[in-house]
Amino acid sequence: MRIAQFKKDGIVRVGLVEKDQLIPLDFNGDMLDVILRGGAEGIPLCPPRPLPEITLTGVLSRTSKIIAIGLNYRDHVREGKMKVPEVPVIFSKFPSCLLGHKEKITWSRSVTQQVDFEAELAVIIGKEACDIPEETALSAVFGYTCGNDVSARDLQFADGQWVRGKSLDTFCPLGPWIVTPQEIPNPHCLGIKSVLNGVTMQSCTTAELIFSVPFLISFLSRHFTLLPGDVILTGTPMGVGGFREPPIYLKDGDEIVVEIEGIGQLVNSCLVI
Length: 273
Ligand code: MG
Fold this sequence. Notes:
binds magnesium ion, 273 residues, 35% strand, mainly beta, 18 strands
């Protein structure tokens, strides 16, 4: 099942995506409300509409936290000249940086001049998880989507920790929809790439993750409770712009696409103000 948010008469609604159609749910609530009721199964459906006529919004309007994992692909660790971590490197992005498919990643030139992209598999939590064992951790997953851990490198590396450079408004595009685990029983065999203005920048597979999705959910839930609608960004593979020689940073008008096999394409353009 593929579940998306869209707006009707200015109000966020939820619908199912099937091929080139969006089937609105006959349901008063947003994606988090759907997650809290245990999913979209059993909700009456409205007549389908052609998907190209619908403007999707972000897959989540609300979340309690966005947890991101740094250095979770070996090739990315090498390009950053870092050491392979023995425990996951964890940081957070503020919920205020959520952005939707086809919305604009926006920043001020006076704040940052080194904005980079990071293609990531995003995990959306479906059930409260506190100290959940790794063996059953996937039961806490509501679904998966494409994420872009947009990063202001100048701010990130100027600070002792990364939250400022990772949390500028619009710096967490997610989408275009959430795919439920019935369609992705194994999240560790998915092709993942980023494409900048038509040129492939990152191309890898989630089989290369150092720490697996169930390990991460179990590990994180030992330290803090994961709540429905929480987001885990699982890390990015090699090929980000800032570690290239010379570096490639995002510019006004650029189009950056994150594509994950079995999910789809998250497309965003850039606006520098
Ligand atoms: Mg990242």
